[in-house]
Write a structure and sequence with these properties.
174 residues, 6 helices, alpha+beta, single chain
Length: 174
Amino acid sequence: MQLSVWIPESDAATFPTARILARLSPAFHTEGEGKERAYVATFADLPEYLDQAVRLIGEVINLPGVRVSINARPVLSLTKFWSALLCYRDSLREQDPQAYCMRRAARLGDAGGCPDRACLSHCQFICTRCLQVARESGAPPVSAQLHAIARQAEVEWCPNLCLPSSPLGVKREA
């Protein structure tokens, strides 16, 4: 997984901690000129530098000009992405990350009054959104709808995410 963070130089000047954290990333360079100049921090192996990436994202989360991409896909909601990144980090501290995800989703599903049917995804960020899945004739496949929901929730990149690719709920390939 590759994470890239673009911080406009003007924002980095105002927030020196963001500039320092960006410079400490595994790969750092500047792009552009003048007002378009930006610092670019890249984490080519996100799991290896996860704590450092979490800290940088936390520092820049409210900066208006910051852009982030995960696996070359632009992140549309930095707040949602950061929440998912924190959850992923926490899951790696568990002996069984999948069980961690299932517990978090179950707790949310219980609180949200999930209907009594098989869970479509054991991810807390998708849990209650799965109620949006259309099952009527002519609707897109459930797996395609869940993938779209995962993108909206900024979690489709997560290695722990299991989405059905068939009616039997086969784990998706990363």
